[in-house]
Structures are given as C-alpha cells and as structure tokens.
Design the sequence.
C-alpha cells in the first residue's frame, strides 16, 4: 500500500540544476517507468526518491507522509542497482540476509524470508556461492531477491537489465513483470530503453533535461505524443519527420504541404496554427503506404527483408531520411524510386516549438 | 570449510566492531550523516595533532629556550642563542674552530656520507635492476635475494657486519688466507667510514632496485623491438632509449634516497657508535646524543639542530614533489 | 635441458659474454646478500671455544676431547699428519716447546713425543644449542620478545583501524574541508618524525607513557602512508555497494566495518606488512622512550648487549638470529606480495 507523490521536486548541484520542479503521483501498485536519454535526470530522480540524494527543494511524500528528511533505509523502499551492487565478500545467502540482520530480525524469520525469495527467484542451489561465481542473470536474480526479502513498500529499479545480453534481457523483463503481478507492490523502474518502458509499464514518465515531457500509459504515449521529443523517443524504428508548412486550416483537420510538393490532409485540431506556419509532420514507419499514384516521392537507399516484414530506408527530395515499415515482403529494390502516401488519420503535426497538435481521429485500432 | 580458528577470528572481529555499533549509530542520528565523516577522521586527527602538528610548533619553542628542563614553562627564553651557538665558527671548513665542533664534524660526515652512499647505491641499484630486467630464469627469486636485507632490522644488520668485520672475523681470515694484510676495520677511521657506507648500501639498495625495476618494466617492449629493427647497438639502446625513459623514476629514487641518507642513524649507531672518535658520527646521532644520551640534556640545541636538518629535508622534499609531478606529467 | 633453461637469457643467440657476466653478478649477489646472514646463523651454533678459533670454520666444529685413564681432565685429541705416528689419533697431555707429549687413548701407559707441526686438532661436529637455551635461562629473552611482539601487534591493529577509518571518510564522503584534511595528512609524509624528537618526547612525557610500550605505540599509529594507501584503494570500491547497504538499513559505522573494510582487504594486507616491518625493526624512538631494561624491545636488548662487555658473542649471535627469524619467515612466505606491494606504492 504505497502512493508516491512528488511535488515540485528540485535537485541542485553546485551551480547546476539537475531536476527542475517535478510533479508526479505514482499510484499504489502501479508499475511506473522513468525513461529518457542519458543525462535526462531519471536516475537522479530515482535516487532522490530512494533517499540516496538530498532533495534541494519541493516535497516527497510516501503514503501522504513527508519523507524528505528520512534516511534511505527508513523510507521502506528497496532498490535494485544497475551494477547489482552485490556484496562481493558475502555469499548469496548472506547478501540476502544482510538487510534483515541490520534491523535485528529474528534468525528463523530471516531464514524463512530468504528461502521464500530464493525459491521464488530460483536461486536456491546457489545460496552458498559468492557473486563472482554467478552468471549475469543469476546475479540479477540475487539483486532482485535482496529487494524482495525486505518486503518493501516500493521497489526501485535503476536500469537493472542494461548489463545483460539481449536474450536474457527479454527473459528478465518477463520475470520482473510477473514479479510485479504476484507481489502487487508499487514499482519505479528507470531505463533508457523505450522497449522496456513500453513492454513493462503501467505508466511511463518521459524525462528530458530534468523536466517531465509527458506522463501516460504506453499506448497513450505512442498514439498521442505531447511533443516532437516524445514522438521521436517512443517507438522503434523512430517516427519520420518531414518539414512542411500549413496550407489551409479546416474545422477538424489541416492541410500540410511540402515546398513544391503535394499536400496531405491531417486529422488534427487546427488550434494554434494558421496558414503559412512552418510545422513538422511526423508519421510512423508502419503508417506509410507505398502507392502507384503521385504521393511523396522517395529514393530507396537500402532494404532489409526479414521475411515476415520489410524495412525500406529512403531519402526524400528534401534530403529527409524516411523509413518505411511494410508487413510481408516487397519487390522493390534499392536505387528505385517509390511514391509514399500519408494517411490523414496517421499524421502527427508539431508546431515550431515542438508541441503536438491534438489528433482528432486516430487510425490505429484502439 | 568450517575452520575453528577462522570462526574465532570472525567472532572477535564482529564483537569488537559490533561494540561501537550503538554509540556510532547514536552519534550518526545526533550529528547527521553529513558530519559523520569527521567522527571517522577523529582518532587519526587526534594522533596527528598530538604527535605531528603540535610538535612542529613546540620545536620552535625548544629551539629558542635554554636549560635542561623538559617542561617549556621552566625553560628561559634565549632567543637565537642555540642557533648562534651551532653556527659560530671561525672557519667553516675546519670543525675544530667551531664552538660546537662535533655538530660540524657531523655535518661534514653527513655530507660525505650522503654523496657517496647515494651515488654508489643508485649505481648498484641500477645495475642490479638492469640485470633483473633481463629474461632470466628464477627472476622472482633473485629479486627477493637483493630485497631481503631491506627487511632486516638496522640493529641486526649492524650486528651481522660487526661479526664479520671484527679483528678475528671471517673477512680478516679470508684476507690472510690469500696472503693479504689484515685490518682492524672498525678501529681505523677511514675504513670505518667506508664500511658504514658499504653496510648502508647493502641494507637499502634492494628497495631502490625494486623501484627502478618497476620503472624498467613500465617501458613498453615494442620500443625495444623498434630499436632492434633500426639496428641499434646495445649501448645505444641503453643510452638513447632505456635511460631517457627511466629518467623520471631515477629522479624519484635519487630524491627519496637523499632524504633517507640525510636521516641515516640506526645501523651506523650500532655498528660504530659514531666512532672511532667522531669519524662516523652523523647529524641525527648528534641530535640524539645532545638531546637524550648526554647529561645535561640540551633539548634546545637538539631542537635547533633538528630545525636546520628540517630545512635541508624541506628543500629535498620540494625537489621530490617537482620530480613526482614531472613524472606524472611525463 | 638444464643448460638450455639457464642459457635462455638472450633467447635466440648463444650463451654470450653478457650472459656470463649476468650469472656471475647474480651468484655474487646471492653470496653477498645471503652470505653474511648465513655466516651469522652458522656461527650462532658454535660453542664459545669454536667462536674464538682463528681462522674460523664454516660448520660448527669444536675441538674433540677424550677421557684417558690416569688423567683427571679430558685431554684434547689430535690427528697426526706426519712423522712416526702418521695416521693415528692421539690425546695431548701437554706441550713442551716445539714438541707435544701425547698418549694413545687405547694404550694409556705409553707417552709419545710428536712435533707440533705434525698434528692437527681433531674436531667434531657439535651444535651448541646452549647458545639458544641460555637466552631463555639467563637473558630474559622471552620478556624482550614479548615486548616487541606486543608493540608490533597492538600498534599494527590500531594503525589499521585508525588509518582505515580516516581513509574511509576521505574516500567515501563529500564534506567541507575534505581536501584540506587530505592535503594536511599528505604534507606530514614530508615531516619525518626524526626532526621532532624533542617535542614528541615532551608530549609522551606529559601523557605519562615514557617507559611504557604505549609511548612507542601511540606516536606513530596515524601513518600518512597508511591513510594514503587505503584511501586510494577505497576509491575503487563502487559507491553503489555503500548505497545498497544504506538501503539495507546499515548505519554508516556498519557500512564501514561490514562492507568497506572487508573489501579493502588487499590494501590492508599491504599496510599490515609495512606496519609489522616498521614496528618490529623500529630503533631510534624506542631507544629514546624506553630506558628501563625490562621494557626493552628485542632491538634495544640486542643493542644493549652488544655494548655490554660481559656478553659473549655466542649469546649475541643466537639472539640476532632469533630476531631476524620472524621477518625472514614472513618474507619467505609472502615474498611476492611484499615486493609487489612496495613496487606499487613506492613506500618503505
């Protein structure tokens, strides 16, 4: 039972502000992911919640109680570190028991909780080994186990999967998700990998340079990115961006036009733009359609055929890179020219300051 | 796996440090985590304060006061008299003309000692390091051979050589065996000085050999391979590649050994007692005898002499700092 | 095969002049570095009679004697090397001028005259364990050994604890004044205690610990070398581990002794070796502080005995050997660690 509330949270280092007044509420039992490029302040924010960094301003509340001044251990949180931070001189069992010993838990209680966690994480046969004798995945499990035995109100994860290889990362992603389902605790998870964010989160918080860009569910962020940064960050391959200008505003859509090119209708709110404004048009690779009639002409630079799907990497007349994701296979070849078509319901439009215009009709089947 | 000795040690460790658990946790709550660092520093700083910083200041009080009282409150102020007494000489090249003639003899002895001991020690250390740096079998063993005397206590070193050098010792027996004249080594002033330097080199060269060897091994081997491809002779490789690249280490070794040589005392004191006469009395022995071994104990004079020695050491240390810095940069 | 192993110095070439010089130097080095110690060790097993023999022998041999019927004292035995009785072993009754009056122990009735140039003293291998046992019986050796051991062990423990606490603070906390404290400690590396002998003595005197092992222990436990060595090592321990322990409810003290101290074990081992070496061999400061002989360390006792004309070399040599033995054993066991540690840290 834990609600974590951040109110105007600020972190200052000498002469440099790392976190610019963050407001956020993480509901009880929610799996919340902080995502952003490196240096965006996501780890700092997590460490402030953990109590490992001082809070320079604002208030942090857990279950309504101000905890700014409490020490890390007193906040009732547990953390899984990026480097795992397993104590190298202790066995796995000692690693798991250390935190409980520190609060003078009775011996049999420690044994019970450690054994439970070991069984849950399938590390029972390694209990007498030291971290150095374990594989990356096993170390990861021990690090999680160390958090589990503490029975914390909130779990904190600081890029826990970044030291694993791709295959293992997928496995551990699933395990952390099922751990969340089983325990039902509030969890806060930091990553720079948007795939992890999309697959695991109930709520994603996108950060950039110490400010929140957008908060929402994974598909919210995917379908209605608030600005060009979020649109570019969420989704893989990246959204295509084309420089265009507004040709005409209508009641429930606008028409955008490329210089000397053809125009497209976009089903977005015309609020805040007028004819002649420069805008950036965004469209995801999977929404581009290749047609025979005159559309947006591109030259194909290279093609990746994966059998079930194909990626076409192209350049348009304006020199913008354009990626097309096509399901199935294609007969097109590198070097050829293709005409792409932008469906009105799939177009995102961003004003010059990067903010998105509201999408009124959404093509995706939601 | 379960070793009773190990368990006992662990139990002792846990009990000893566990005892401080409650007070330290209390202190942490009291003064906050930000200032807990000072608590960790405290024991060390108290000792430093009492036995390093305070004495530096007190030294000046002793140097400017007289009498044989140890308590400062009982010592009359005499100004620069102790320094004047040490430094008053008719002719600085002739110790006999000085008021404190033994001090000046000690200075001359120390100067000669420093020059000869450091010079020859670096020469032999370098030679040994170069030889140990070759691709020879049992290199670790030989490194240990030359290093072993470094670990011996100065008293033991002195007694070992005293036993060898005595009138009817093994050295004289050996000389007689091959028909050479024997010498009463430690009774002849010149020979005693020679052996003092010899023994001091014997005892300490292993340390400098080790540092020079580390310096040699830090030189990348591809430099040598390139020189070989260029057809350089061994001497040219040594003089144009090894020596220039080893120079920073050499400077450190030089300054370090100079600082040590100025403070030489232990082995020499036991080996010759500073004799015959004052032939092997060095500056630190003069300070020790003036302040502690003779009656009345002239603490002021000893402190003044220490300060003069400190000035020399300070200059050498500054040299070392510059040397280390240029090594770090180079 | 052995030859190819020894001669691999130049790799591809033949065994050339520089190789001969190298091996000559190395063998000379073994003789010069180990020889004196070995000589003292051998000598320490000789009886006083053998010690005063000149020229000395390498092995502990002492003149052989025999009891002969009709003589009250044991008579010295001689090998006859020339003349009428060549090859026989005779006992000498007395020497008269250039001749010696001798007797065959098997036939004690007959007296024989032998030129003194035709005889050599018969010697037997005899180890004088008495040199060592007298140390315990007459010289209070155990007392000195205990004093030295006490100072070495206690000072080393305190040094490790104090230095590691300071190093922990300097390596793992950010606080105002940290740089100043660190520089101050490093600066004391340049102030050898030898230039502060008089005032340090005053402080020790005021604390009332003159003539006590504590007077030797306390002044040198806050070694700047140790703080520096441990701090540099602790900097390499990841901060995440400390944070994890803090999240695990560990107090700062617990972080120090449960996490940081065990992980700094390699650096602590180096400091322990240094400290043991410093303390066991320390001479000048104990010489000043300890003036009562029952407080003497081994080094002081050795020094006192060698100045004392009453002491025979036999006891002194045995004591020298016992004093260098612990360091020698430690060196033999830990040679690699010691040389590596010193080469890395550049301190002695």
Sequence:
């Amino acid at each position: 039972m834990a609600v974590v509330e951040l109110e105007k949270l600020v972190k200052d280092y000498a002469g440099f502000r790392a976190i610019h007044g963050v407001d956020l509420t993480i509901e009880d039992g929610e799996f919340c992911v902080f995502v952003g490029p490196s240096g965006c302040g996501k780890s700092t924010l997590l460490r402030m919640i953990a109590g490992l960094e001082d809070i320079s301003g604002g208030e942090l509340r857990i279950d309504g109680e101000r905890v700014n001044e409490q020490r890390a251990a007193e906040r009732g949180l547990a953390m899984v570190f990026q480097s795992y931070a397993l104590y190298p001189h202790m066995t796995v069992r000692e690693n798991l028991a250390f935190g409980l010993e520190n609060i003078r838990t009775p011996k049999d209680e420690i044994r019970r909780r450690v054994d439970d966690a070991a069984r849950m994480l399938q590390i029972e046969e390694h209990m007498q080994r030291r971290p150095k004798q374990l594989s990356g995945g096993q170390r990861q499990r021990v690090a999680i186990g160390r958090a589990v035995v503490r029975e914390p109100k909130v779990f904190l994860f600081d890029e826990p999967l970044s030291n694993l290889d791709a295959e293992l990362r997928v496995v551990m992603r699933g395990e952390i998700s099922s751990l969340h389902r089983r325990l039902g605790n509030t969890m806060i998870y930091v990553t720079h990998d948007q795939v992890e964010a999309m697959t695991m989160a109930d709520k994603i918080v996108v950060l950039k340079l110490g400010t929140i860009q957008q908060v929402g569910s994974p598909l919210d962020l995917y379908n209605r990115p608030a600005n060009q940064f979020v649109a570019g960050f969420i989704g893989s391959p990246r959204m295509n961006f084309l420089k265009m200008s507004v040709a005409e505003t209508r009641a429930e859509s606008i028409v955008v036009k490329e210089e000397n090119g053809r125009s497209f209708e976009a089903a977005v709110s015309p609020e805040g733009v007028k004819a002649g404004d420069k805008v950036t048009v965004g469209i995801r690779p999977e929404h581009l359609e290749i047609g025979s009639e005159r559309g947006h002409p591109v030259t194909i630079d290279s093609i990746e055929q994966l059998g079930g799907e194909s990626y076409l990497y192209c350049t348009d007349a304006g020199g913008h890179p354009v990626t097309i994701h096509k399901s199935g296979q294609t007969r097109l070849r590198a070097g050829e020219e293709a005409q792409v078509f932008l469906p009105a319901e799939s177009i995102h439009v961003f004003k010059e300051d990067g903010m998105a215009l509201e999408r009124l009709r959404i093509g995706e089947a939601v | 796996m379960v070793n009773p000795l190990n368990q006992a040690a662990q139990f002792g460790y846990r009990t000893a440090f566990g005892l401080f658990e409650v007070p330290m946790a209390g202190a942490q709550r009291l003064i906050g985590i930000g200032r807990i660092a000072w608590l960790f520093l405290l024991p060390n700083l108290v000792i430093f304060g009492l036995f390093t910083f305070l004495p530096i200041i007190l030294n000046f009080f002793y140097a400017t006061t007289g009498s044989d009282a140890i308590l400062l409150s009982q010592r009359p102020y005499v100004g620069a008299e102790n320094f004047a007494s040490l430094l008053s000489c008719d002719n600085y090249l002739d110790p006999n003309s000085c008021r404190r003639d033994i001090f000046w003899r000690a200075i001359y002895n120390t100067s000669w000692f420093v020059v000869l001991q450091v010079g020859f020690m670096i020469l032999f250390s370098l030679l040994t390091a170069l030889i140990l740096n070759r691709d020879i079998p049992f290199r670790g063993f030989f490194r240990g051979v030359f290093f072993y005397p470094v670990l011996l206590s100065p008293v033991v070193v002195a007694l070992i050589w005293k036993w060898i050098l005595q009138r009817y010792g093994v050295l004289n027996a050996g000389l007689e065996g091959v028909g050479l004249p024997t010498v009463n080594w430690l009774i002849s002033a010149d020979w005693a000085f020679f052996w003092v330097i010899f023994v001091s080199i014997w005892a300490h060269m292993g340390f400098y050999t080790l540092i020079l060897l580390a310096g040699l091994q830090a030189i990348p081997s591809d430099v040598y391979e390139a020189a070989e491809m260029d057809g350089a002779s061994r001497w040219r490789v040594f003089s144009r590649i090894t020596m220039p690249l080893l120079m920073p280490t050499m400077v450190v070794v030089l300054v370090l050994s100079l600082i040590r040589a100025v403070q030489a005392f232990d082995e020499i004191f036991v080996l010759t007692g500073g004799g015959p006469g004052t032939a092997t009395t060095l500056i630190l022995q003069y300070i020790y005898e003036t302040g502690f071994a003779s009656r009345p104990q002239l603490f002021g004079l000893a402190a003044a002499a220490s300060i003069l020695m400190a000035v020399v050491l300070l200059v050498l240390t500054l040299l070392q700092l510059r040397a280390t810095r240029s090594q770090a940069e180079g | 095969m052995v030859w190819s192993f020894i001669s691999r110095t130049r790799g591809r070439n033949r065994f050339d002049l520089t190789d001969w010089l190298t091996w000559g130097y190395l063998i000379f080095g073994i003789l010069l570095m180990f020889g004196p110690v070995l000589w003292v060790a051998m000598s320490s097993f000789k009886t006083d009679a053998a010690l005063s023999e000149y020229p000395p022998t390498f092995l502990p041999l002492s003149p052989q004697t025999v009891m002969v019927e009709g003589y009250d004292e044991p008579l010295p035995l001689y090998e006859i090397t020339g003349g009428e009785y060549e090859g026989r072993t005779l006992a000498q009754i007395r020497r008269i001028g250039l001749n010696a009056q001798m007797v065959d122990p098997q036939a004690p009735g007959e007296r024989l005259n032998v030129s003194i140039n035709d005889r050599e003293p018969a010697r037997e291998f005899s180890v004088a364990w008495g040199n060592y046992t007298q140390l315990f019986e007459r010289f209070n050796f155990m007392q000195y050994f205990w004093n030295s051991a006490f100072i070495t062990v206690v000072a080393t423990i305190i040094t490790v604890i104090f230095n590691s606490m300071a190093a922990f603070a300097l390596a793992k906390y950010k606080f105002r004044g940290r740089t100043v404290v660190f520089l101050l400690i490093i600066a004391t590396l340049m102030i050898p205690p030898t230039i502060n002998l008089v005032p340090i003595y005053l402080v020790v005197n005021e604390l009332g610990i003159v003539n006590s092992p504590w007077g030797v222990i306390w002044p040198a436990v806050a070694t700047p070398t140790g703080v520096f060595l441990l701090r540099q090592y602790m900097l390499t321990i990841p901060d995440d581990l400390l944070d994890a322990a803090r999240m695990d409810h560990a107090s700062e003290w617990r972080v120090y002794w449960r996490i940081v101290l065990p992980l700094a074990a390699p650096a602590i081992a180096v400091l322990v070796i240094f400290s043991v070496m410093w303390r066991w061999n320390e001479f000048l400061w104990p010489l000043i502080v300890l003036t009562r002989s029952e407080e003497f360390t081994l080094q002081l006792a050795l020094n006192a005995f060698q100045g004392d004309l009453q002491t025979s070399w036999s006891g002194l040599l045995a004591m020298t050997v016992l004093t260098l033995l612990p360091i020698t054993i430690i060196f033999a066991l830990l040679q690699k660690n010691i040389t590596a540690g010193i080469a890395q840290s550049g301190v002695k």
In short: The longest strand of chain C covers residues 107-115. Chain C touches chain A at residues 238, 240-241, 243-251, 254, 258-259, 262-263, 265 (CB under 8 Å). The beta strands of chain C are 61-63, 65-66, 75-80, 89-96, 99-104, 107-115, 119-121, 123-125.
